[in-house]
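Fold this: Helix-turn-helix domain-containing protein
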Amino acid sequence: MHTATPSPAHDERQALIRQARAVWLDEAATGPAAPALGGATAALEPWITRSWQRCLAAGRQPSDKIDFDPLHATRQRQVREDNQALIDAARPVLAQLTRTIAGTRYFSLLTNAQGVVVEVQGPVEARSPAAPLARVGVDLSERAVGTTAIGAALTELQPVWLHQGEHFFHENRIYSCAGAPVFGPEGDCVGMLDLTGVEVPERPELRHLAARAARHIEDALTLQRPWQLLLRLNWPGTPMVDGAPNESDGLLCLDADGLVLGSNGAARQMLPQPLRPTGQRLHASDLFALPWGLLFDHAQREAPAQDLPLWSGLRVQTLARLRQHHAPSAPAAPPPATLPGAHGLKDLEAKLIRQAVDDARGNVAEAAQRLGISRATVYRKLATRGGPAR
């Protein structure tokens, strides 16, 4: 079997990492934080040195021994029960990952938001150096095992790549790992996905693979919600048809009353969410500048994707579909017989803006603030649809 030979660039980077460790870790133990070191510092991503510094501040030293002891059996069961929804959403994704990385000597781990392993997939031999950590119930947080992709992804809340000497503890220098946080339907971090190899070539591209897989887990978590109406969202011009969502699609789940049950990360980025009191759920009418019952009408008619207005003045391409095996109860506000076309939507948008101006007693600045748009947009929308604001 062909074994890849490390490139000169790889050897140079490893030398810089060793130099950075000598200053940041060995000398930091007896002196102040290291100054910038040009090439040595540039070899490290900033989050790595931040993690090293946290480990030092916690009183840990790179030569310390690590314990990969799992939680007590009772606590393990509790952790798995608490994270069953995450495990169920991740298993098909992890199975696909196992096929994708076959032959690379990497395996996948899923942890909860505290860094405790809740699922392992991939070949890990009992006598492998990876065996101690590739077990359900092992705490792989930064507090327990120092700088790793797991602790970093959960702390930095971004995809990361970590190779050998970039780990804090000497004992972990045999590992290479990529990680990405997993966010739940409410937008909070619920866990992370990790790809780990033992004494393997550097594979920084695995960071992208981990991030992509994490997004698929997030989509599955969103679709687990007991939704009555599912909205697939994307910017106009993106092909959108029935079937599996595009990787870039936003997913927004509504109940029969138009309340938001959950969304994936793409939807949260596309739809600015107004502030609301703690515990109060977001409603479709807070997001879309049209009567929310139209969304149910769109779904009942199985209409193709259509560009719908947001309160920001933007439009988002929306495909609405009802849950097939459970038709929703009638919305509180009965939808009209048909969803208006582009011309009708503009009239409806102008009507809603004018109503906001009327509610503000003609104060355009106040109406614009409530709508989350500029005064210029208010004037322009109304001037083009029936005259300027009063």
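The CA atoms of residues 99 and 122 lie 9 Å apart. Residues 29-39, 326-340 have pLDDT under 50 and may be disordered.
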